[in-house]
């Protein structure tokens, strides 16, 4: 035996003591190893957490080195005995860049896993140019699973270095859908802006998506109301209401300032101009208020449709009141009307403008009007006229409306949450609810992402690669999902790194 000569002279008591001593030594070594492993894994988790925060704040990757420098100085004062543990957190530029890609990949993998259970999904697609004049295409997905839970995330972000024709945009969108392994027959809605490359009936994205669904034999299965109707809302209205109101309030001061500069202000002081400025201020403020109602994440299409319907009704009211010389909902107009002759204030002219605006709203949102019956199934299924409902859901709808327990649940949780409580014995109603819940009402998420993009990819950050930009935006836009840092850290080979190194 290896240690025979060393321990042969020990009696039984001494041997027992030696065994216990060796056991304690082994446990101590094991604990030290576990502690080192735990500290190393904690350091990796910390670097992932910091990398995620850097990505969310659109800061450069080398900000990690600044964060670490600050952390070490704080550590020297607050807990100097922990200095080595803080030093082990690698936050070099390369490490933060790698961590950012890992986090984004983890989010995409989670989205793919979620997608396996989607029973319906919609897409929001838009395109914009970054600081280097490169076209960037963003694709958001809103999917609903069998439990009627909504997942709203960035599906794809593509730098398009060539042209951006409808065909090329479609190819990228198609690639996004294919990579996540979603069948086209579950596509319910497509939301874009009004650009020809997006909305063209033949060569635009919308037309090509329709053709793709026909090729996949989706039209008969989904029904023309889903295969043929794109949902698009222009959300690039300028928030000019407040600026115009400020100009209106400071009109006299502005004129005085221009006069000190030798400028002619006769036109600015004309009553006709002042009336038109007042009307523009008021209607812009009303449009801004509607715009805010249509923005935001997780918005339900029925709520947005209700806001649009309400605004159309308001336009009719305002038109009638304006014809009667009563601009009671137009405060700037009231101010000017009180200052000039009533006969001079162009009520009929402004009523005509309101009429034209109402007609434009009817044209723009005609697609939504087609879906009115199905929207009501989600917003208030207990008030839907069964005889006017699609025949495939009439029997289930009767059962629903006669169920007092479900009616009480609807009253308690509201329209947005109620679909989850529709029993499995009503599969057609659940399917209808899933399709409605999956719809986008605007390209707001794309616009919000482009704002983040412009903060991230600036003229001073031209070294940022397409992959890194895509990873940053996936992390910063994540809402329904969050990176599984524990999983990432457990997969990462834990190595203690010094300041300024990458692992």
Can you tell me about this structure?
This protein is of the alpha+beta class. It has 3 domains: 11-231 and 441-503, no CATH class; 241-364, no CATH class; 372-437, no CATH class. It contains 24 helices and 4 strands. A 4-stranded mixed β-sheet has the order 3-2-1-4, with helices on both faces. 32% of the residues are buried.
Residue-averaged pLDDT, rounded? 84
Q: In this structure, how is the largest beta sheet organized?
A: 4 strands, mixed
Annotation field: number of helices: 24
- Physical arrangement of strands within the biggest beta sheet: 3-2-1-4
Q: Beta fraction of the residues?
A: 5-15%
* Unreliable runs: 221-238, 494-503
The run of helices and strands is: HHHHHEEEHEHHHHHHHHHHHHHHHHHH
What is the structural class? alpha+beta
How much is the radius of gyration in Å? Answer: 31 Å
**Helix content range of the residues, please?**
55-70%
> Separation of termini?
43 Å
Number of domains: 3
Instruction: Write down how many β-strands occur, each being a DSSP E stretch of 2 or more residues.
Output: 4
Shape: extended
